[in-house]
Amino acid sequence: MLITMVIRKKKIGDYLLDGFNYVILFLVGVSTLYPFWHVFMASLSKGSKIDAHRGFLLWPLSFDLSSYRAAFANQMIGIGFKNTAIILVIGVPLSLLFNFLGAYFFSRSNVYWKPLFVKLLIVTMYFSGGLIPTYFVVRSLGLIDKLWSLIIPGLMSTSRMIIMRTYINGLPKELEESAEIDGAGHLTKLFVIILPLSKAIFAVMALYFSVDYWNSWSSALIY
């Protein structure tokens, strides 16, 4: 069978549209990257010059590295990065594990009172206990001034558990049925069949949880 491809020649309007799109994308890119450039140039300038300057900053004002020297001389910055790294290394894998286990549980069709559990789970997504009750719970667990106070409260995420459950429901059921015929239990199906097929959703969820733990600075101020 002969397959022929018809290549349509571009018209002037097509070139104009492409040019317009490129201009828009360029402007959007500049507006997105400029704030980072402004902060970088400000970090290379003297503080007195920055205070007196108004408007855009395209190059350093009186090149000075005193800001970087002060930052590296402050030991608290290094401690902060170390604590953040510890929280990420511990919190992200635990969050993935617990949410994956919850997603697998709610993906089963033979769970008793499953509709009730799902409704209760969704309620927690829209209504939280609040700041003060959460603080009392963390304090009662003896987690104040400990890194675990920044890890445990963020382990579970209802919305992401639901996303992972939807992903698991989309996997071929025939694979699980074949494993059950061979005598596989829940742990075997979970870690041997479903887990290897869930690498994509794990990568996305790992990114989400990493951003959450990285940005949770307010919890460190409270706990």
Describe the structure.
- The protein is an all-alpha fold and 223 residues long.
- It has two domains: 12-71; 74-222, MetI-like fold (Orthogonal Bundle).
- 71% of the residues lie in helices and 0% in strands.
- It is built from eleven helices and no strands.
- It has helices spanning 12-43, 47-52, 66-73, 75-107, 114-126, 131-140, 158-169, 173-181, 186-197, 199-215, 217-222.
- Helix 4 (75-107) packs across helix 7, helix 4 (75-107) packs across helix 10 (199-215) and helix 8 (173-181) runs antiparallel to helix 9 (186-197).
Q: What attributes characterize this protein structure?
A:
223 residues, MetI-like fold, 2 domains, 11 helices, 71% helix, 0% strand
Strand fraction: under 5%
**What's the CATH architecture name of the largest domain?**
Orthogonal Bundle
Q: Please give the largest β-sheet.
A: none
Overall geometry comes to flat
Could you say how many structural domains there are in total?
2
Number of helices: 11
Could you please say which CATH topology of the largest domain applies here? MetI-like fold
Rounded mean pLDDT score: 86
- Uncertain runs are none
CATH class of the largest domain: Mainly Alpha
